[in-house]
Amino acid sequence: MRRRLIALFLGLVALVLLAVEVPLAAGYAQARTQELLIDRTGDTARLARLAAPALARDAVETLEPEVQAYARLYGIRVEVHGIDGEVLLSSAPGRASSATESQEQALAQALAGRRSSPPQTVLPWRASPVAVAEPVLRGSEVAGAVVTVSPAGQVVRDVVLYWALLVGAGLLVLGLVAVATWPLSRWILRPVRRLDDAVHTLTTGDLDARAEVGHGPPELRRLITDFNRMAEGIRTSSAQQRALVADVSHQLRNPLTALQLRVDALETGLVPEARADHRLAMEEIQRLTQVLDDTLAMARAQEDRSAMVAVDVRECVRERLRMWSDAAEAGGTEMQLAGDGSSWVLAPAGVLEQVLDAVLHNALRFTPGGTVGVSVDLVAGGQVELRVADDGPGLPPEQCAAATRRFWRGADQQNVPGSGLGLAIASTLVERCGGALAVRPARPHGLQVVIRLPRLEMAAPAPADRTVGQPVSGTSAHPPRTPGLAAR
């Protein structure tokens, strides 16, 4: 943006310079041409007065010493023409036949008793010789004409030099403006950059993002102040909403638990016909309890700001697969792990385990007697990709994007136990780690959850007396040395 601002300033200054220098350049060329014309008109008139008695005596050759001396002194060709236009005397006889249209026009005007018209302005690309003609009068009659043909080289050189000075002065002004605009643009754009960084950070979910007011134009400082107030209002409102959800969920659990106990105690006194209704009531109470638990977990996931620690993703996956092995065996589901080596990421303590529990629970619930495959790989962009795929019924592509929305449940899953918050909580936790969670169809059928997290670069191996994690694939894996971070 700074370059665009400087380019705008320089463009405006360049337009002003063009508006000033173009008329100056044209005016100087016209003034030099007029100066040359005045000088040559006086000389031509003097030569015409000298030629009048010579033509009267028919002794035009007496003018030759004067004409030759003038031509040698000034480098100007002089011609004396008779009344019929014939060249009677020339300082350069060989050039008499090379008259240009402007010279012929000037001669015709002089023989008609008029002074020749002013020539066109001499320009670098239009540097034809300047012809000036004066009639030679005998009384009131025209006896001939004197024509001087002046080369325009000196005028062109003067014009080019003047124009070069104008261009140099313009470039110097542009340079000075650029030098002055650089700190000015920094002063103007520094608060804009601070505000842009704060807005970007705020949109990533960090509601604590604020922009420093600092120095800059008053309007921008006021804008930053208003933004900080708005961000503080958003953070406060969000915190109040999460606190409300957490408080309501927590407060509802006590009466709900009491209700469950009382309804459960009624079972012994029910008639056989009412036992089915009693069972349905208990199931609804358990479902409502699960919804409250998941809502409370979502609120805590959004407000948790625990410190980041180094986590070995592959070792974490192995641990969670061991924990879910009994549930998989009970449902006849086979779990597989693919990928080699350790992949370290930064995540709050327990977050990655919570994410894996939610994803594996969904996969096992919808894949009885099938296969759940888990892979950990390094992908482009310095990221670790964790993929959990099952061969269950899956979801249509249009429903995959909605699967991470809160309380979303598929049309064919309304009777399946759950609250619809598991993947939403997992997605929130993954975003807190700087990653992303996506739900996609698996091939040929089923569902896959793809989690991508920024990889933590490996450093030198840890000392022998520092044991971190377990060896993976027969090699010793240690987390990188990260200041302020504890290894898991």
Automatic annotation (TrEMBL):
Domain Histidine kinase per the UniProt entry, residue ranges: 247-457
Task: Report the enzyme's class at the first EC level.
Answer: transferase
Instruction: Tell me which UniProt keywords the record has, alphabetically.
Output: Kinase, Membrane, Phosphoprotein, Transferase, Transmembrane, Transmembrane helix, Two-component regulatory system
Q: What is its EC number?
A: 2.7.13.3
Entries under SMART domains matching the protein: HAMP (SM00304), HATPase_c (SM00387), HisKA (SM00388)
Main localization (coarse): membrane
Where in the numbering of this chain does the HAMP domain appear? 186-239
Q: Which transformation does this protein catalyse, written as a reaction?
A: ATP + protein L-histidine = ADP + protein N-phospho-L-histidine
Q: Where does it live in the cell?
A: Cell membrane
Is Nucleotide-binding among the key words of this record? Answer: no
One Gene Ontology molecular-function label:
phosphorelay sensor kinase activity
**One term under GO cellular component:** plasma membrane
Listed transmembrane segments? 160-184
Indicate what this protein is called per its UniProt record: histidine kinase
According to its UniProt entry, this protein's organism is: Blastococcus haudaquaticus
- Lineage of the species this protein comes from: Bacteria, Bacillati, Actinomycetota, Actinomycetes, Geodermatophilales
